[in-house]
Amino acid sequence: MMNDTSRSGGIRAAHQAQLDQGRFLIQHCSQCQRHIYFPRESCPHCGSEQVQLVAPSGLGTVHAVTTVRRKPEAGGDTNVSLVDLDEGVRLMSRIANLPVDAVRIGQRVQARVQIDGGAGLVVFDVVQDRTEHTP
Questions:
Q1: What is the per-residue pLDDT across 25-36, written as a single tens digit (0 to 9) for each?
Q2: Which of 15, 27, 71, 104 could form a disulfide with 51 if both were Cys (CB 3.0 to 4.6 A apart)?
Q3: Residue 79, exposed/middle/buried by CB under 10 A (0-12, 13-18, 19+)?
């Protein structure tokens, strides 16, 4: 089985090329069956090099959020959020469709690729407005 490292530039370049085309992919290890993000040359769980880029559901839950204060001329305040995808990986990104003070832990979100200056970046949008709390 061919893994993603055989592509020119390595796995990170292949991943960014997909983002630049509007496609968000994570890795899946065929050995231990776990998902991986950020893409790596081998599975951090079992060491296998049998990792493939796959399309996730993109659904997840806000795990943590903080507000980064910036001057208006620098773009204004923004949120930095940790999102747990349903596939079991955690990403650092931002919630794009809410004001910074409306982002809450437990909100369900959906990933999308935002293209800025030709470069793709994963951001999230809240898909339901209720906060899920686990005891």
A1: 999 999 999 999
A2: 27
A3: buried
Tell me the three-class secondary structure of 121-133, residue by residue.
Answer: EEEEEEEEEEECC
The residue whose two tokens read 């982002």 is 103
CA distance 26 to 19: 11
List, as own/partner pairs, every contact residues 82-85 make where C-beta atoms lie below 8 angstroms and the sequence separation is at least 24, other chains included.
Answer: 83/109, 83/111, 83/124, 84/60, 85/26, 85/35, 85/37, 85/56, 85/57, 85/58, 85/59, 85/60, 85/111
Structure tokens at 23: 């496609």
Say what the pTM is: 0.84
